[in-house]
Amino acid sequence: MSVIYILITVSIIVAIVFFTLFVKAVKTGQYDDSYTPSVRMLFEDELVKENNKQTKNK
């Protein structure tokens, strides 16, 4: 029965740590850009082609 108390305590501590890290990331602006990821996939092929051309020219 004491193992359950230890596991619950550890899981609550881990949850608090992850929550504080998430709040810190939100406050520092980690998730502010919501437009670029949706558009990035449209231009990904062009970036790959340009990189291939540059490496072939060298």
Could you walk me through the main structural features you see in this protein, from its secondary elements to its overall organization?
It comes from Pustulibacterium marinum. The structure is a single chain. By secondary structure, the protein is an all-alpha fold. The chain has one domain (2-57). The protein is built from two helices and no strands. The protein is elongated, with a radius of gyration of 22 Å. The mean pLDDT is 82.
Could you list some keywords that capture this structure?
58 residues, 2 helices
In terms of per-residue confidence, which ranges show pLDDT below 50 for 5 or more consecutive residues? none
Q: Give a short account of the largest sheet.
A: none
Percent of residues in helical segments? Answer: over 70%
Structure summary, number of beta strands: 0
- Which structural category fits the helices and strands? mainly alpha
Number of helices: 2
Broad shape: elongated
What string, H for helix and E for strand, traces the elements in order?
HH
Total separate domains:
1
Rg is: 22 Å
Strand content: under 5%
Distance between the termini: 67 Å
**pLDDT averaged over residues:** 82
Summarize the topology.
Layout (H helix, E strand, L loop, with lengths): L1 H26 L8 H22 L1
Protein name: Cytochrome oxidase maturation protein, cbb3-type
Pfam family, one: FixS
Organism: Pustulibacterium marinum
Write a brief structural summary:
The chain is mostly helical and 58 residues long. The chain has one domain (2-57). It contains two helices and no strands.
